[in-house]
Design brief:
Blueprint lengths: L1 H18 L5 E3 L2 E4 L1 H10 L3 E4 L3 H6 E3 L3 E2 L7 H5 L8 E4 L4 H12 L5 E4 L2 H5 L7 E3 L2
Parallel strand pairs: 2-7, 3-5, 3-6, 6-7
Antiparallel strand pairs: 1-2, 4-8
Length: 136
């Protein structure tokens, strides 16, 4: 009986500890990153930087060297096949909603490393942490 109570307590403890872990993971193997972390990744790895907003939003302002693949485009599924599944991908949108959905789709499609910019471009637009190209 004591063993059973001990095992139950152990399982309960492990369960509660794992539920309190850092919630920086969006989904399976999708890591939410800050602008600083994104810059480090861009400097250290051969990364595909993808803006998943509309082309109009992209034209207004986007992170330097980002390519635009509109998550809401009818050709989205076809467009992501042009990305290299073996190379890391950093995604961003306006505030993080579309990029989180896109990240899930990329993981389901077999992409190995997927990062999602925390808070989207809106959170970092007026900071000095990322280089943004604005419409002139």
């Amino acid at each position: 009986m004591k063993k059973l109570i001990f095992i139950c307590c152990l399982v309960l403890t492990v369960t509660s500890l794992t539920s309190c872990l850092d919630k920086k993971e969006v989904g399976t193997d999708v890591k939410l990153v800050t602008a600083e972390e994104m810059q480090s990744i861009l400097e250290l790895e051969d990364v595909q930087l993808v803006d998943v907003r509309t082309s109009e939003e992209y034209d207004e302002a986007h992170i330097v060297n980002a390519q635009n693949i509109d998550f809401n485009s009818p050709t989205f599924e076809e467009d992501i096949t042009k990305l290299d599944k073996t190379k890391p991908v950093i995604l961003y949108c306006k505030s993080g909603g579309r990029s989180a959905k896109c990240a899930k789709k990329l993981k389901e499609a077999g992409f190995k490393k997927v990062y999602d910019l925390e808070g989207g471009i809106s959170k970092w637009l007026h900071s000095d942490k990322i280089k943004v190209k604005r419409k002139s």
